[in-house]
Structure prediction request, 357 residues.
Amino acid sequence: MTIVFLARRFYPQIGGVEKHVLEVGKRLVKKGHKVIVITELEKNTNGQNYHSVSKSARLTGKVAGIEIFRINAGANDWFKKFRVWKQLWKLKKIIISADIVHCHDVFFWYLPFRFLYPTKKVFTTFHGYEGNSMPTKKAILMHKLAEKLSHGNICVGDFLKKWYGTRPTFITYGAVDKKLIAQGSKSQKPTKDAIFIGRLEEEAGILEYLKVLTILKGRHMSLSLDVYGDGVLKDESLNYSKSHNLKVNFKGFVNSASDYIKNYEYVFCSRYLGMLEAMALQKPVFTQYNNEIKKDYLQMAPFAKYISITSDAALISNAVENYMGKKNLEVARAYLWVKNETWEKMVNLYLRLWNRA
Prediction:
């Protein structure tokens, strides 16, 4: 089959959706399918919102057999959708040749083509929610529209049914590499204290985790923290760490955080992919919510009972202290659950979705 993925961001940019599309795409290529990704051309390579390890992503090219086409969508303003549609029109031969078009959160990109090519199979993966904000009526409407006009969908998280009214064809929570699972089966001795993985934004809880270090320090339990991520709260996080004399190292974005998790005793993260990778390495996960949708995002997950889910720094610090003394998180059971959630299983889920339509 020829499969076209539409995604706002893609390799070498770093993030959960980017990794999801890359890992699924690589394995589809190995199965003999042709995979094409149409994504945005990233212009700002120096800002705090940039997720890339490369400052010169080519307009087109290949990675792991996946063909990449980058469109210049411009600024995030009201006219952006028209620029996207214009750019996609220039690539319409690719869309016409596709057996499958699959949208990753950007079904609106494909909206005009859904009516131009009514018989072409199109699908959607809903990857998450709008960061720090509660879902707007517009966001809910767009989810319902994408669901109705798609031939099937995958929801990353059961919470999407409650908050967006989406009826999923399949539900997933992400996946991990088999090599990581094999690594996690072996005894590991951590050499460092804690790792934070994620964007430096309110939704990811970076400031709450820094407060945890302050609270534990006051209890004569001094933890060091390595921060893998960047974002709008970087300066505030740096200033807080300095003013409270905390042992925090800001590492910036890295291509694969899973390469580093094995070295740490505690994992602070807020998104499924990071949690699954930590669980695969048999590390205790401490995660935080700051609103009701994030609470459901965490507590409605099937692995919720194996990790620590709390709402603020005081509760997180209590959870960390309790784990230090009692090892009370079910790390081994978390590993047994996640060891079956491989990227190969994810690829088969996509194939089942496409074949049933």
Remarks:
- The two ends are 14 Å apart (CA to CA).
- The chain has two domains: 2-175+342-356, 178-338.
- The chain has 15 helices and 14 strands.
- Residues 16-30 form the longest helix (15 residues).
